[in-house]
Specification:
heterodimer; A: Umud Fragment, subunit A; 2 domains; 1 helix; 7 strands; 32% strand; elongated; B: DNA polymerase, domain 1; Dna Ligase, domain 1; five-stranded mixed beta sheet; 15 helices
Amino acid sequence: MDGEQWYGAAYKGSKKYNQWQVPTANATGFGAAADDYMERGIDLNEQLIRNKPATFFFRMNSDAMTEAGIFSGDVLIVDRSIKAVNGKIIVAILNGELLVRRLQVHIKGVTLLAENKKYGNIPVDEFSNYAAWGVVIHSIRTI
Amino acid sequence: MKAIIDCNSFYCSCERLFRPALQNKPVVVLSNNDGCIISRSDEAKALGVEMAGPYFKAKPLIEKHGVAAFSSNYNLYGDLSWRVMETLRMLLPPHAVEVYSVDECFVDLSHIRRQDLAAFSLHLRETVEQWTGIKVSIGVAATKVLSKVANRLSKKNKESTNCVLVLDTPRKTEQALQRTPVEDVWGVGHQYSVKLHAMNINTAYDLSTRDVAWATKHLGGVTGARLVRELKGIESIQMMDELVNKKMIATTRMFGSPVRELKDIKEAIATYTSRAAEKLRRQHGAANTISVFVVPREQSHSTYFRHGPTVGSHIILPLATSCTHELIKPALALVERLYDATKVYKKAGVMLSGIVPDSSIQGSLFAEPAANKNRMLMSMIDNVNFAMRDDVLKFASSGTTRNWKMRQELRSPRYTTRWEELYEIS
C-alpha cells in the first residue's frame, strides 16, 4: 500500500514494486536451485524514464533529423526537467509551432540545426518567438 | 504556514501545452456535451466571455474574436493534474500535499523558515511550470482560509506578485483582508454574503474583526466559528490525508441529445452503474444501497437549458455487493419504476452508498464460494478494461448503440495517455 514511501525525493522515476513481485521458480523438485538468484525483470519505464511527471512522448513525423538517427515514425521520449543546453536535441517552440532540432547556442544567440542536408538551419532572430519545450532523451524505433 | 497552489485557467493551460500558438490568445473549454464554458484563459475573460455561460450564447463573441474553443478532454486534464501534484509531492515531505480538486492543492509549509517562504514558493511555481508546462498561483498564509485570500490576490495581480503572495506579517494580512470582498472568502456562500452585507460586513477584514461567539450565533454554528478563527490566523482547518475511501460513489452524465426511449435510458443507467461499481471495487468496497435518478426536460419551456425536477428512487440490497451484475439488476428495476413515456430526458445518474469494506476479498472461510467466483470475475473484467481501455468488456445491458453518449465535437487528441494519439512533430 505505502510503496511510495520506499524511495526518497531523489528518485524521480517510475519504480513501483515490492518484494512479492520478484518471481520464484515455484518448482516442486530440484528446480529451486535458481531461486536464490531470482530478481526482477527489466522494466523499460525505469530505464527510459528519469522523471515521470516531466516526461512526454511525441511521434516524429519528418526526416529533418535522420542524420541524428531519428526517423519518421519514431517515438521520442522528451524530458521537460532537463535543461536545454548547447548540443542537445530538443523540442522547440518556434513561432507557435513545435519542432525537433539540435540546439546550438553561440555568441549571437541560438540556431536550430536540422540533421539532414535537405533541411536548412533556423537562426533564431529577434523577430522569432522561441522557447525550449523539452529535451529529447530517447528515440524508440520499431525495426 | 499553509499554501494553496492553484493552476491558472487549468483546462485552457492543458490545451495550450501542445498548441503553443494559442499562448496569449483567447481560449475556452466547454463542459460535457459542449454545453457551457467551464474554463477561460485571461484573454477570453478580457473579451467578456462569461464563466459557466451557455456556449451557444457566447458563440457570436467567440467566432467574432476567433477564440479557440475545445470540448473537455478529461484524459489530458487528469494526466496533467497528476503530473502537477506528483511534482509537488516530489518537492515536499510526505503527506505535505493535500489534493483539493483537479487543479488545486493545499500544501503544508511548516518545515520552511519564514524568511524563505517567498523564495521557496517561487521555486515550487517555477519547477511545476518547467516540468509540466502548467502555470500555478500560490497563496501562503497562516491558515487555509487566509491562504485562499492570498491566492485570489496573487491571481488578480499576476504581474506585480509573480503569481506568489505570502502573507507573513499581520500588516500584510490585514491589507489583504481589506482588499477581499466578503463574498470572495472561501466558505462564504451566496446566502451568507447577502446576510453579511446587510449587517454592513463588506470585506473579509470586517468579518475577521468579529468574535467567535458572534460567528457561532450568526454564521451557522461550528463552521462559522471555524471560518472566523481561520481569518484571525488561528489554525482551525487541518490538513487532510487523501480521501481514499469515499462514503458515496456517484456517476452522473448529461445525455448527448435528449432521450425518449426506455431502452436508451436503461443502457445509460447500466453503463453508469458499471462505472460506479468499478470505482467501488477500486476502493475495495461493497455497497448496500443503490439510487437512480433521471432528469426530464421541462415541458412548458422550449429553452435549451431548463431542467425539470429530478426524479429519483433507491433500493436497499439484502447484502452489500461490488458485483456489477448484482447492481445493474436493481438499477434497471428502478429505471422502469421512474420512467414516464410522455417525457423527454436530459440527464441520469447512479449513486452507490452504504459502502462497507468488501468481505469477499479476503476469501473468508464463511463466505459462499459463489461470492469468491464473482469477485474473481469482476477482477478479471477490471483488469482487461484497465489494460485495453474503452470498456472492451461490458455487460450487454449497457447496450451497443449508445444514442445517449456525450457530444465532444471539439476535443483535442489525448496526447499524454494514448499511444495512437501522440503529438506528431516535424
